[in-house]
Amino acid sequence: MAETKYGKSRYKRVLLKLSGEVMQNTRTGASIDPNIVHKVAASVKNSRAMEAEIAIVIGGGNIFRGGNGQRHGIDRNTGDYMGMLATVINAMALQDALEKIGVNTRVQTAIEMKQIAEPFIRRRAIRHLEKGRVVIFAGGTGNPYFTTDSAAALRANEINADILLKATKVDGVYNRDPLKNVSARKYIKISFRKAIADRLRIMDSAAFALCMENDVPIIVFDFFKDGNMQRVLAGEKIGTLISN
Prior knowledge:
alpha/beta; two-stranded antiparallel ribbon; 19% strand
């Protein structure tokens, strides 16, 4: 594998949590913009070059957000399942972009759909990672009432990931919304207990609790700044570290 300017990853296995909105072009209104998806794929490829095993959980909010269905009269359970299907569409789009640039990829779904993806099987997922393949987990947890943040925490624990990387559009966790409050203070490090007690909305409390109980740290960082994911893998102090 080609050497990168960032060297070798300090983490052997990582779980990258991407929101569905990373696919979206807010200017044109396109739910899935091929150019943006290509940039996401290129960042993942550059990270793989650092010899990190990479698994991804992707959301579906660019297509359909389950929690919003109730506002339009859709049953909560039905809406959540619709959201899970949206994550599969995003996973397929990202898989296509990755394979076009030479990254072997597998999609595994929590809801079985054999024609387009493998069912989630923990041991198979780990074997794919060991063989250098990127594994994309779609379909959330397969259950309504759980977010894809919870799915990311669950899968990170199941595959024994060293760290969970939460990709965002801001450069870390703040005590207030930095876009609305100029006095907002960024956390460099924060404990899971404080994140839960302060109800920081960067991830839901179920995801925080699962990672806290199993000692899987989380780094929240700006995924869209060039090279940031590689800097995180190299051990640079990027974003906010949430840990025990």
